[in-house]
Amino acid sequence: MTWTVIESPIGALRLVARDGALTQIEFTPFRDSDGRPRGERDDADPLLREAARQLTSYFEGELQDFDLPLAPGGSAFQQSVWDQLVKIGYGETASYGEIAARLGKTNAASRAVGLANGSNPIPIVIPCHRVIGANGTLTGYAGGLDRKQTLLDLERQDALF
Fold first, then answer.
1. CA distance to 77, 137, 144, 158, 161, per residue, from 122 (Å)
2. Of the residues 51, 88, 99, 128, which is catalytic?
3. CATH at 10
4. Is 128 tagged catalytic?
5. Listed residues 59, 90, 105: the one ending a domain
6. What are the pLDDT tens digits along the chain (161 aa)?
7. Is 152 contained in some domain?
8. Which of 159, 72, 74, 160 has its CA nearest to residue 124?
9. How many domains does the chain divide into?
């Protein structure tokens, strides 16, 4: 397990990889005492370098679809929600209820979808920022609503051209 840190328009991001797959992207402030193993810092790790390159290209408005091996750790339900998140197109949004419906669940599952969305260990690449409230408002985001708004604005701006 290795990690690196990159700078971005939404603050420093820590990228964590294990066994050839990206497992986490963490927002600052980093929580080193949360019990998650991260291994050693390795700024030369080929996968982390590629992830950094793709994220930089995304923030520059040049990349809309990530192509990275991902291994987010979570329950089967969380995995099913995260699988739906990557299907939300660049510059698009979906509500928690829409994600629940795509999973064959009723709107009552929206809260569970929201909890799974908030547990996404690989934000941006698994675009949990694209999930909004049913009335179109921004709702909770692990990285904070300012970061969520910045990411949505970045994608909307680029979607116009």
1. 16, 22, 15, 22, 27
2. 128
3. 3.30.160
4. yes
5. 59
6. 999 999 999 999 999 999 999 999 999 988 877 777 678 999 999 999 999 999 999 999 999 999 999 999 999 999 999 999 999 999 999 999 999 999 999 888 999 999 999 999 999 999 999 999 887 778 777 788 899 999 999 998 755 54
7. yes
8. 72
9. 2
